[in-house]
Amino acid sequence: MNKPFDAKEPSLGFLLYDAARLMRRDFDRRAKSLGLTRAQWSVLAHLRRNEGSNQASIADHLDVEPITLVRLLDRLEEAGWIERRMDPKDRRARLIYLTEKTHPILARMQELGAETRDVMMAGIPEAAQATMYEHLLRMRANLTSSTKPAEAEEVYPEAENA
């Protein structure tokens, strides 16, 4: 059921985009002291859920060009946040793992994400939050390409980056 167009009301797409933008801004402000860029903490948060992924799958999931990801990984590796290991199944590929140094920063990112979520969800009853979450999962599944059916069904724990 589509609402009729009303130029005075923002569209669903705009509201989703704007809420996500403001959520990232709030998290960025909180995470500034961590010394990581948004792109870097996005990689670390992804690896927390998908440690041992190869570079191509990380680039695809984060929707970045492979060369951009390689530069990010170079900086993260130089700083001691990640390590690359040979893929035993493919000598050309590298698998990416978090280092012990990363675990405290991931815990702090999770705390900051919870703070951002608390601000974002203030005044919304828990039942409505659960319903909204279910609907967003369904929207994501509906929009997921049929070439990636497993991704549509994947349910992530609450994201560390809010």
TrEMBL record:
Pfam families the record matches: MarR
Keyword DNA-binding: yes
SUPFAM superfamilies: Winged helix' DNA-binding domain
PROSITE patterns named in the record: HTH_MARR_2
Keywords of this entry: DNA-binding, Transcription, Transcription regulation
InterPro entries on file: HTH_MarR-typ, MarR/SlyA-like, WH-like_DNA-bd_sf, WH_DNA-bd_sf
HTH marR-type domain span: 9-141
Recorded superkingdom: Bacteria
Keyword Hydrolase: no
PANTHER family found in the cross-reference section: TRANSCRIPTIONAL REGULATOR SLYA, TRANSCRIPTIONAL REGULATOR, MARR FAMILY
Protein's UniProt name: MarR family transcriptional regulator
The organism of origin for this protein: Dongia rigui
